[in-house]
Amino acid sequence: MANFAKPDAPRFSVDVYQNEYLPEGGREVNAIVTVTATGGSTIGKGPGTAVPGRRPSAAVAVMVDCSGSMDYPPTKMRHARDATAAAVDTLRDGTHFAVIGGTHVATEVYPGGGRLAVAGPDTREEAKRALRWLSAGGGTAIGTWLRLADRLLASADVTLRHGILLTDGRNEHESPDDLRAALDACAGRFTCDARGVGTDWEVKEVTGIASALLGTADIVADPAGLAADFTRMMETAMDKEVADVALRVWTPVGTAIRFVKQVAPAVADLTGRRAEAGPRAGDYPTGSWGDESRDYHLCVEVPPAGLGREMLAARVSLVVPQPDGTAQNLGAQGLVRAVWTDDMTASTAISPQVAHYTGQAELAQVIKQGLDLRKVGDFDGATAKLGRAVQLASASGNADTAKLLAKVVDVVDAATGTVRLKTRVAEADEMTLETRSTKTVRVKK
Question: Which residues are within 8 A (CB) of 267 and not within 5 positions of it... i.e. 6 or more apart?
């Protein structure tokens, strides 16, 4: 384990958990890499506080759905205004911010003029007064909201850029390709949390936005819960200390990376997001960090070797890529090893951490498969997949997911995965299960 320390910044550490032993001819090496950031600045947090030189500068854009469907029921728009006001109240003094109204076009609600406001007592009150004029009407083209947020956030010379996006409907007024192009343009420029309110939005759209922009996704089925959720999101955003951290993986000649996945606190496949970083090295984006810990599953294919041989299969470090092509090395590093042995007990053992997160990744996959099969009427297939999900959730101690599954299936025997599909399932329950299917629990100590 190695770590990095800098005054008023988090110290990063890397721990590697694996069984490095392979049988003769074995080629697949699996490891769980735990990255932890601790000890960042604990002062200057919260609204109305500012400690120059200690807290990183930040800019936030809040994107609020103002399409016609936000008027059904009328209280939905009111709760969205209240939630945005709560988020504004949570801004730390000195944070640059803007509020965007989203329909089939994007509108600057506050401060306007293609600029950002700087959070303080006066600007918070001005922003909240501007929110009173938010009303519902028009369509939904989320890509336009994201592009405006990108332009506004880019206008500030800050360390951290973040968005919060709320929608209540499907992205019907632009093509999927348009949304994808907007996400591609914004990826790496700011992070974004996405929320769906009610039950008329598309889970894959909202989770896709959050995934592309390295944020979180969730459902707020009851609009009355928006203010609390927005407050939590903004508090988390204000607690971030370091932006654009990448997991740099170096591998020796003859090896190949099969995949790199975040596996806690949620499953996210980073394999296709690799950016080349010199000979045999690649960077995998992880977004912004505060005081927190995340787990990653690294799978490497190594060339076969004879008994008694050992090799370094991969070296994992943390960097912050710079615009000029260089990178700030955060000093934390972990090594993944491969050792070939004829000891069958050693070579067939599975690391508890690897086994746990392999099960968590499968849990997320079978939930999505089961729900998709249920939607198309393949009830036998859905029962099998969701039964397997119940079994995995029970075995791994994922109580939250188990509770969500119990709203979609009747559990006969959790240990064997024996279930019956419920004949009636509330739409909000099904959408909550789908949206939160990637959330995992940490490995048992």
Answer: 261, 360, 361, 364, 438, 440
Is the pLDDT at 394 greater than 80? The verdict is yes
Share the mean pLDDT of the chain.
94
Instruction: Please state whether the predicted TM-score (pTM) of the whole model is above 0.90.
Output: yes
DSSP 206: H
Residue 322 DSSP code: -
Q: Which residues pair with 340 in a beta bridge?
A: 22
* Rounded alpha-carbon distances, angstroms, from residue 361 to 296, 309, 347, 371: 11, 31, 23, 16
Per-residue exposure over 258-269, b if at least 16 CB sit within 10 Å of its own CB, e if not? eebbbbbbbbbe
Strand order in the sheet with 275-276: 21-22, 327-340, 310-321, 242-250, 281-289, 275-276
- CA 148 – CA 146 distance, rounded (Å): 5
- Give yes or no for a cis peptide into 265 (omega within 30° of 0): yes
Whether the per-residue pLDDT at 51 is higher than 70: the answer is: no
Among 74, 76, 148, residue whose Cα is nearest residue 105:
148
Within 10 A of 228 (CB to CB), how many other CB atoms are there?
Answer: 12
Q: Report how far residue 218's alpha carbon sits from residue 324's, in angstroms, rounded to the nearest whole number.
A: 36
**What tokens were used for 101?**
């109204």
Using one digit for the tens of pLDDT, what is the confidence trace for 352-365?
Answer: 999 999 999 999 99
What are the structure tokens assigned to 316, written together? 């994992």
Terminal Cα-to-Cα distance of the chain (whole angstroms): 18
| Interstrand relation of 96-102 and 327-340 (parallel, antiparallel or unpaired) | unpaired
Q: Which of 133, 184, 192 is nearest to 167 (CA)?
A: 192
Strand partners, 31: 18, 298
Q: What is the pLDDT of residues 92-113, one digit of tens each?
A: 999 999 999 999 999 999 999 9
